[in-house]
Every structure is written in C-alpha cells, then in structure tokens.
Design a protein that fits this description.
Blueprint: E1 2-6, E2 10-19, E3 21-26, E4 29-35, E5 54-60, E6 63-72, E7 79-84, E8 90-92
C-alpha cells in the first residue's frame, strides 16, 4: 500500500511483476487483476517475480491517491516489483 500525493490531476503508468497473483486497486477500485503461478508467465521464470512486463495506468487526482497491490501466495512465498514511468509532480506519504 502506498499513498501518492500529486500536485495536479494526472495519469502515471505503473509497471510491475508479481508472484503468484495480484489485484491492483486505486482508492479501493480494482484496476487490474492477474496471475503468475506455476505456468510461469515470464520466459525463464517459474512462478517467481520476473521483469516488469505488466502495466496499468493510475489515475491520480490532485491530492492523495491510495494504491494497493494485493498479492496472493499460493505456495513458496510471494513478491512483487513495481516502478512508475515518472515521479514528476508526485511524492509518497
């Protein structure tokens, strides 16, 4: 969970990878759901966190927006990586 403070209304692209499944929520509204379990979505990786091949646009309002990555662990642990396309005009709380 992260709270992103934006100086204006804007859209930022969030690139991410995860294991085993994920839901991405913006202010409580689901904007993405995906799975990366034993079928190994990432070439050369088997149900682990690989390169950031998934992306979703985050609608940021002026002020604070809460973003949650809800990770599902089916077995052997969980994890995720995430990065934004730009940090211009935003900070984290």
């Amino acid at each position: 969970r992260v709270r992103i403070a934006s100086d204006r209304e804007q859209t930022r692209r969030l690139f991410f990878s995860y294991s085993d499944a994920v839901g991405v929520y913006v202010d409580g509204r689901r904007v993405f759901v995906g799975r990366n379990d034993a079928d190994g979505r990432y070439a050369g990786f088997l149900g682990i966190v690989g390169p950031e091949v998934d992306a979703v646009d985050l609608p940021l309002r002026k002020g604070v927006t809460e973003v949650v990555l809800a990770i599902v662990d089916k077995a052997f642990g969980w994890g995720f990586k995430a990065r934004l396309d730009s940090l211009e005009g935003i900070s984290f709380q």
